[in-house]
Amino acid sequence: MISCDRAGLDERALALFIENVLAEDLGTHGDVTSSATIDGEARLTAVLAPRHDIVVAGLPLAEAFFKKLDQDVRIDCLVSDGAHVAAGQPLLRLDGLALPMLAAERSALNTLQHLSGIATMTREYVDRIAGTGCTLLDTRKTVPGLRVIEKYAARMGGARNHRMRLDDGVLIKDNHIAVTGSIAASVTRAKSAISHLPVQVEVDHLDQIEPALAAGADSLLCDNMAPAMLRKAVAIVAGRVPIEASGGVRLDTIREIAETGVTYVSVGRITQSAPAADIGLDYHHPTA
After folding, report:
1. Residues 55, 120: contact at Cβ < 8 Å?
2. 5 is a domain residue
3. In a domain? residue 17
4. Segments forming the whole domain that contains residue 235
């Protein structure tokens, strides 16, 4: 079970992520501009808020950046990840030393903006297929090194995670079939070698469906099939196994795809191409 209180990261992974991101931004000598211009005892209060409506993801990480550089910073978390927040609605309220707050600002914002962008786009796709009975899945099309937190953001947006890694699901694709020589051979070998995981088979054509099912496929991935072909695939399968539609799915096409009767629709662009949410820190006068 993946923990959500650290955006999907365990304690060790969280510490490493925060350390690496801060090191990337601070360099060897830290925030030289702030250090040269601001007194070390100066304090700031700040409110973190979006500039447009968003679905929030990544607040635990944003908090962790600020606390890493100032253990005594006061942070009031005003919403929860997964919440739909209107433009201008405060997400976090901060009160602490100015220097560490300024040093952590960009790392916190970059992470929160990226993950909230994913959650926001994901929610748009989820809303578009509401009422169809179809479930949105994410994919492994993620930024290298960020998969766990990007898939966490997709969950906050309402999607269900597909494979997190290559070792937690069997998906036989066209290249596997090309090497083994047939769908039947691929499925048979997979089921013999890995009995504890369900086997999904990617099909590009309708005539591949029955061979996949006869071989024992536990689910099908219909790749780049138009809605008319998907409806035929659903009719052929007739409820025997779940069906996932994948390939080139866009916001303007997902509803029609979902209405074909498929069980799932997977969308790579929710993690691969989501624009960052516009979130800022508005600073106020120093506290007394």
Report:
1. yes
2. no
3. yes
4. 160-266
The token pair that represents 112 in the structure block = 């929160």
* Mean per-residue pLDDT over the chain, rounded: 95
Q: What is the CATH number of the domain that holds 229?
A: 3.20.20.70
250 burial level (CB within 10 Å; 0-12, 13-18, 19+): exposed
- 108 & 205 share domain: no
CB atoms within 10 A of CB 88: 12
CA distance 82 to 273: 19
Our count of domains for the chain comes to 2
Closest C-alpha among 96, 76, 100, 78 to residue 88: 78
Give residue-wise pLDDT tens across range 232-260.
Answer: 999 999 999 999 999 989 999 999 999 99
- Dist. CA 269–CA 118, nearest whole Å: 9
What single DSSP character describes residue 275?
P
Task: Give one word for 30, left, alpha or beta, with left for phi > 0 and alpha for psi -120 to 50.
Answer: left
- Note the pLDDT tens digit of each residue in 45-100: 999 999 999 999 999 999 999 999 999 999 999 999 999 999 999 999 999 999 99
38 with 69, same domain: the answer is: yes
Burial class (CB in 10 A: 0-12, 13-18, 19+), 198: middle
Q: Is residue 95 part of a domain?
A: yes
Measure the CA–CA gap between 134 and 262, rounded to whole angstroms.
Answer: 7
* Active-site residue set: 106, 141, 173, 202, 223
Can you point out the beta strands (E) in the chain? Answer: 43-50, 54-55, 74-77, 84-85, 92-97, 135-137, 170-172, 199-203, 219-223, 243-246, 264-266, 279-284
Please check whether residue 137 lies inside any domain of the structure: no
Residues 106 and 202 in one domain: no
Which tokens sit at 113?
Answer: 């903006």
